[in-house]
Specification:
Length: 203
């Protein structure tokens, strides 16, 4: 085994270790609305479920040069955002939205995605997603770095509406093949679902 002390590693080395080790990571495609009403979108693979009661998800948005990214700034300002599960047919468009655009330019328009109004919040989502979740901001936690200059904003969203393509949803179960989720590996690598197998859980 190679054993490493993070205190003796640079943040970049720690980042490379984490993104290579914690794989495959699901990808949240997040839309937010800027102060001036521009629909912003970006993918985030530091994404997971927090709790089902009430349903909450987390997204960790790294800061850039000390400043929160548009997604974090908008989500905190509006108190709402939409999380979409990234499926294979629109992953190329999602990737285009990771371009760093000025806050007054919409990545949704850039990538040719179709805005769709939300039911419970004033932030639109995109139609191309097979699953989308309207979220209100439950908590935004600045973490890491130093108290004066945190490294990231951990956004915790409480889901106030789930949307799913009807053909994927059968009596509360989601068809994983129909969903065709895309996951992130290290660097520019992605993966699809591999072999699915079942193991009985011990009583
Ligand atoms: C597949 C993928 C996953 C990403 N995951 C993250 C992430 O978890 N956290 C993060 O801060 N940036 C992540 N990024 C980079 C952001 O998407 C990128 O910085 C984006 O421009 C941020 O947009 P915004 O400034 O509109 O918020 C990821 C990029 C890609 C392509």
């Amino acid at each position: 085994m190679v054993s490493l002390d993070p205190k003796e590693m640079t943040p970049l080395d720690c980042y490379k270790f984490l993104i290579g080790a914690v794989i495959p990571r699901p990808i949240a495609f997040v839309t937010t609305l800027s102060e001036t009403g521009v629909l912003n979108a970006a993918p985030f693979s530091f994404f997971n479920v927090v709790t089902p009661d009430p349903p909450m998800v987390s997204i960790s948005v790294q800061r850039q040069g000390g400043a929160p990214k548009d997604t974090a700034r908008n989500a905190i300002h509006r108190g709402a955002f939409v999380v979409h599960i990234v499926s294979e047919p629109y992953v190329e468009q999602v990737n285009q939205t990771a371009a760093t655009l000025p806050p007054d330019e919409s990545e949704v328009a850039l990538a040719g995605l179709t805005p769709v109004a939300s039911d419970a919040i004033d932030v639109p989502g995109v139609r191309e997603a097979r699953i989308r979740m309207e979220c209100v901001l439950e908590r935004a936690l600045p973490l890491g770095g130093t108290p004066e200059a945190p490294a990231c904003d951990l956004l915790i969203g409480r889901v106030v509406r789930f949307h799913i393509e009807a053909s994927l949803y059968d009596r509360g179960r989601i068809d994983p093949h129909g969903l065709a989720p895309v996951a992130r590996l290290a660097g520019n690598d992605y993966s699809l679902l591999g072999r699915i197998f079942t193991i009985e859980r011990p009583k």
